[in-house]
């Protein structure tokens, strides 16, 4: 069985870069540290260090063991901090990974229930590609990952997907661009400049199939992995763009954009991915059990883009 005291001595020596320095930092005799590491190597049946001149260097196996040791003692430190926080009333850390294809406003709506907890919370948000975030989730650097799709079947990470809600999809454009569109929706999309989510976005495929069934072929003016960047380009009038219908009021009022129409039968779902089948972190439980109002329904007919009112001349 792994001796964690010996592992801790190895961790200290590896971080210090040698036994003498580790001895100075820990106050333990060099002979004690050497003996503990030798005992650990004997138990595991491996070599952790090799001589490199006057210094010790980690073997390839030693590098791997150090990675695990770093995570083990980081988690131990977090456990102590969490217990201390509960006893002193300090904020509980809540580390969230947000896939870059998830709109920021949607992420806030999904996380909002955790902000209502009685215990004080300190939220730490990290944005990135889903596969990278899942890697951090696997080694417990994150408590949960928010994504637009469930856990990929081909990933090596063991995790569980908890569906949080969904929204229909609408198209938006700057007023200047909207004024150039001819005909009713969705025919007005044909030949129009279009900004699309990147290939990794779960909604990309359904959107392309919907446009095929509507027999419209917009001119693809840009593709974006980051939803916020796509919104910025759309606000500048570079092209129309699709996003969650439930954000329509915010997009139109805050960014001065117009809602052109809705992609029928195209929805975007949102998931919380965790390493636990049964959620335990209080903030993850809060967002996993809440029922956020993610209902982006199409507007009434007069809100849709119907015809271009420009004069012929």
UniProtKB/TrEMBL annotation:
Keyword DNA-binding applies: yes
Superkingdom of origin: Bacteria
Domain HTH lysR-type: residue ranges: 2-59
Keyword annotations of the record: Activator, DNA-binding, Transcription, Transcription regulation
GO molecular function, one term: DNA binding
Record flagged with keyword Transcription regulation: yes
Protein name in the entry: LysR family transcriptional regulator
């Amino acid at each position: 069985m792994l001796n964690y005291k010996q592992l801790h001595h190895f961790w200290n020596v590896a971080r210090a870069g040698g036994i003498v320095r580790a001895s100075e930092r820990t106050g333990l005799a060099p002979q004690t540290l050497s003996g503990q590491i030798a005992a650990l190597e004997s138990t595991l049946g491996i070599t952790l260090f090799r001589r490199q001149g006057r210094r010790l260097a980690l073997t390839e196996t030693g590098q791997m063991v150090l990675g695990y040791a770093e995570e083990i003692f980081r988690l131990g430190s977090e456990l102590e901090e969490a217990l201390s926080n509960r006893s002193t009333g300090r904020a509980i850390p809540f580390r969230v990974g947000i896939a870059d294809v998830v709109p920021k406003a949607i992420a806030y709506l999904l996380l909002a229930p955790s902000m209502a907890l009685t215990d004080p919370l300190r939220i730490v948000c990290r944005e990135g590609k889903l596969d990278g975030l899942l890697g951090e989730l696997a080694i417990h650097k994150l408590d949960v990952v928010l994504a637009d799709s469930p856990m990929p079947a081909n990933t090596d990470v063991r995790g569980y997907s908890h569906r949080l809600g969904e929204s229909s999809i609408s198209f938006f454009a700057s007023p200047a661009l909207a004024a150039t569109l001819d005909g009713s929706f969705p025919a007005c999309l044909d030949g129009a400049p279009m900004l699309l989510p990147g290939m990794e976005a779960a909604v990309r495929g359904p959107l392309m199939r919907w446009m095929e069934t509507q027999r419209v072929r917009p001119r693809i003016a840009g593709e974006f992995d980051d939803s916020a960047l796509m919104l910025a380009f759309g606000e500048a009038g570079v092209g129309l763009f699709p996003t969650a219908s439930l954000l329509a009021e915010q997009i139109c009022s805050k960014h001065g954009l117009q809602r052109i129409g809705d992609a029928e039968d195209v929805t975007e779902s949102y998931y919380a991915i965790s390493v636990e089948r049964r959620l335990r972190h209080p903030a993850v439980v809060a967002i996993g059990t809440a029922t956020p109002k993610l209902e982006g329904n199409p507007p009434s007919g007069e809100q849709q883009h119907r015809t271009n009112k420009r004069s012929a001349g």
